[in-house]
UniProtKB/TrEMBL annotation:
InterPro entries hit by this protein: SAM-dependent_MTases_sf
GO BP of this protein: methylation
Organism expressing this protein natively: Nonomuraea salmonea
GO MF terms held by the record: methyltransferase activity
UniProt KW keywords: Methyltransferase, Transferase
EC number: 2.1.1.-
Protein name (record): Class I SAM-dependent methyltransferase
Length: 357
């Protein structure tokens, strides 16, 4: 209430028509104010030892306590407590050494299936489906020409759900495969697809996939769900052939919206486990053997699809603030397996950052 009143005082009613998800990017001065607010929060929040932290939290049946997986730091900086009303609640800590944000306690990997046992495929279809496919298309366009032509290229969609992306991939000519943890999603996907195939389980259990040699691996809104990201990424790296690339779409832990809304941030969903920023995703890729990385700033689907109702002046202000803060709400990452991949795609509009270990 007080915040709303302060907003009214500072900006009047000028931005009332701008959706909440875009307001922080277009109101003058707000980017700098939110960034200062974040620095203050992370400087002031107490840092505790893991033992002290464990004493303050109860551990659910499917949960475990973690150290930071990106750098090994055991100290914890408790920051957020997202909740979905009555249904769920968890704790998010920040690593005081590298800034990684993760749920702690986290979910034990062998119990991950519990989160997706029933009903998840219903969430993945319906209205969600059309928006998803638009988002896949916009993301591939942002990295053009890497995904323009699929002929004679092997593609693995990890966490393929009901096959919405595989459908686009087979249309583009990719020799496409998927894996997923939900058996009912896999069944639905295989009904939808004509040439592409999805499988239930882990990549190493499926001979067609374990054979490797992939040109492309995609992770659409999957990264935040992985309880053992280093193991998974070492596997992805080994499944990629020479010149291979890995595409990631995930929520951005450096989002200006997280800095503005804290525990109420839209990226803190029920099944998300870890939250990466451009900085921490680099660490993950470097430690698992990737040679380089490029980012495509995320301005939001309506802006990129050209369907937004924002006036042109505000659109350019939004774009500028996303770029200056590295703070779009989603993060789009293209990882290069080796020098051959960098050589093949790095010359165009993409800025490639080399990852040296
Ligand atoms: Zn860390």
């Amino acid at each position: 209430m007080v915040k709303r009143w302060l907003g009214r005082l500072a900006y009047g009613s000028r931005y009332d028509d701008v959706p909440w998800g875009q307001r922080v990017y277009v109101r003058p001065g707000e980017r700098l104010a939110r960034e200062a607010q974040w620095r203050l929060l992370t400087r002031r929040a107490p840092i505790v030892s893991r033992a002290a932290y464990e004493r303050t939290r109860s551990l659910g049946e499917i949960e475990e306590f973690l150290d930071c997986m990106m750098c090994g730091e055991s100290r914890q900086q408790p920051l957020f407590e997202p909740n979905g009303g009555k249904g769920w609640r968890y704790h998010v800590v920040r690593c005081p050494s590298c800034g990684f944000l993760y749920r702690n306690p986290n979910v034990r990997p062998e119990r991950l299936g519990d989160l997706y046992a029933t009903g998840y495929s219903n969430f993945l279809t319906g209205k969600y489906a059309a928006n998803r496919q638009r988002r896949y298309d916009l993301t591939m366009r942002a990295f053009s020409p890497v995904f323009d032509e699929g002929k004679e290229r092997r593609l693995l969609d990890f966490g393929s759900g009901v096959g919405l992306f595989l459908e686009l991939a087979e249309q583009r000519g990719f020799d496409a495969y998927g894996v997923d943890l939900s058996p009912e999603s896999v069944a639905q996907a295989n009904e939808r697809l004509s040439r592409a195939r999805t499988f239930f389980g882990a990549p190493q259990d499926v001979p067609e996939i374990a054979a490797g040699g992939f040109d492309v691996i995609t992770l659409w809104s999957v990264l935040a769900h992985l309880p053992r990201p280093l193991d998974d990424f070492r596997l992805f790296r080994s499944l990629l052939g020479p010149g291979g690339v890995l595409l990631i779409l995930t929520v951005n832990a450096n989002s200006l919206l997280l800095k503005a809304y804290g525990s109420q941030w839209s990226g803190f969903t029920k099944n998300h486990l870890m939250f990466y920023s451009p900085r921490t995703v680099r660490t993950l890729l470097r430690r698992t053997g990737f040679a380089g990385v490029a980012f495509a700033p995320h301005y939001g689907d309506t802006i990129e699809a050209g369907t937004t109702r924002l006036p042109a002046g505000l659109v350019s202000r939004l774009r500028r603030n996303v770029r200056l803060s590295d703070g779009g709400n989603m993060m789009r990452v293209l990882a290069f397996a080796d020098e051959e991949a960098i050589g093949r795609y790095g010359g165009g509009p993409l800025t490639v950052h080399r990852l040296t270990s």
